[in-house]
Write a structure and sequence with these properties.
35% helix, 6 helices, six-stranded parallel sheet, 175 residues
Length: 175
């Protein structure tokens, strides 16, 4: 049987989408596979995942985001769109290069839903995947097109969250 590319998508309003994708990256690295993680919204050099991944062989992580995405009318929205499109160009190059067996596009669903990266560009990239590639998409607001194109879709649903009681983000949990 011929191998086919795999596309996995983690979406929903619950906590754990990035965590699931990073778990997949660790699993792949454990099998000697090279992995690239591109974070399309996050811009925090102090997160635990950045510190941990520095010590993991075979995983590269790059934050291309600019943090919280303002409304399209906001003066800084264009900067966010430019950063996301630069990140997506990097992702497309990485997928085509063959250097990485797995590419994780963390928060790409948010970038698409908020108009930072056109959905058609992501779908075209996914349609051109080599047979041995794995792409993992994460983020809230996954579009029907991305959901339809993925082989595996997990909807991470929030049942309860500590934020609701006023608790702040905690190291090792949300940061």
């Amino acid at each position: 049987m011929t191998e086919q590319p795999r596309i996995l998508l983690f979406t929903g309003d619950g906590k754990g989408k990035t965590t699931a994708a990073l778990g997949m990256a660790l699993r792949a690295a454990g099998h000697g596979m090279r992995v690239l993680v591109l974070q399309f919204v996050k811009q925090d050099a102090t997160t635990g995942e950045l510190a941990a991944i520095e010590s993991v062989e075979n995983i590269d992580i790059i934050q291309t985001g600019r943090g919280f995405i303002p409304s399209p009318e906001h003066a800084q929205y264009a900067e966010h769109r430019e950063a996301a499109q630069t990140g997506f160009a990097h992702a497309s190059d990485a997928v085509r290069s063959g250097k990485y067996a797995m590419v994780v596009l963390d928060e790409i669903c948010v970038a698409v839903a908020r108009g930072l990266v056109p959905e058609r560009d992501v779908l075209e990239m996914l349609d051109r995947l080599a047979s041995d590639r794995i792409v993992v998409l994460t983020g809230r607001y996954a579009t029907p097109g991305l959901i339809n194109r993925a082989d595996i879709v997990s909807d991470v649903r929030c049942v309860k969250h500590a934020y609701e009681t006023g608790r702040e983000a905690q190291k090792g949990v949300e940061r």
